[in-house]
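quick one before i forget lol
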Amino acid sequence: MAQKRLLVDMDGVLADTYQQFFRLESNITGKKIQREDVIGVSEADAFPNYLSYVHKAGFFRDAPVIENAIEVMKKLNNVYDIFIVSSAMEFPNSLREKYDWLQEHFPFLHWKQIILCGSKIPVQGDILIDDHFKNLDYFKKTTLLYTQPHNMGRDKGHQRVNNWKEIESILL
């Protein structure tokens, strides 16, 4: 029997891009924004300099890994046919930075398991873990909504997961 195909988003699921936004906002503007300040607000609206941040060299390369992601992904990689599916065309620097970030933090994933794309709509599998409704809403099978401030207060029929330990308990 073939393994189930598990699709995993990168930004906001594996990579803690919110920590990048908070750090840059503090360093560049001096404003100390907290998670609770941006609940239910899109990233672009929460961070006035959003576009300059995501176009800044190193933004995607230097993001910290979300707690427990590496350990749980190693376990999942033994059970599922895993693909990292990440939008990388909108911000051209991100293409190389995301690949390098994955090679550093998730070296157990083969390059053939990485899909850096423009739209995720054509990519299908059995399970999708993502933090954006724009990616989950079209998906035809099981969806796991990874909690991030921008998606709090709305679930739209997706099963919410708050951390990697919850994902581990659901999928293993």
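fyi The longest strand covers residues 81-87.
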